[in-house]
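User: structure tokens for this one?
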Amino acid sequence: MGPRFPPSGSARQFTTDLQTLTCRRLRGGPSIGDRAIALDRIAGSVFLVCAASLAAWLGSQVMPDRFLRVPDVTVSAQAAPGAPDLDLQKIGAEAAAEPMTADDIRHLQSRLQRLGFDPGPIDGLVGRRTLDALNHYRAAKHLSRVFEIDRRAAADLLN
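Assistant:
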């Protein structure tokens, strides 16, 4: 077994609080007040961890790009064999580099909705449902899957 390093900071306090709560000594052990304080600190720590986890999960549901950004891959293993990537032929490199505005996103969402792909609310914001709807549309056209919405990925729908 390798060397053990003592925990530092809040980890040391958490360990001490657990030992205080689990101590079975009746005489000479921690008092009820000490146990209550230890239980309060542990409950607070657990609450903070749960709150931070919930905030991270909610943030990834609302804005998935904030926590994990997957690079856009032009040629994907999921693309149908022999299917040309038509959107690269229709849009130039200069136009693909321009960021999409909220009006462009609204236009894209309304086009997807008219074609039967549910992008969620037409609000001009890119969310998971809009990205899923665009990927379902691209799958129907035998195009590769995208991980972020840009002009190159939505070239067919922005015309």
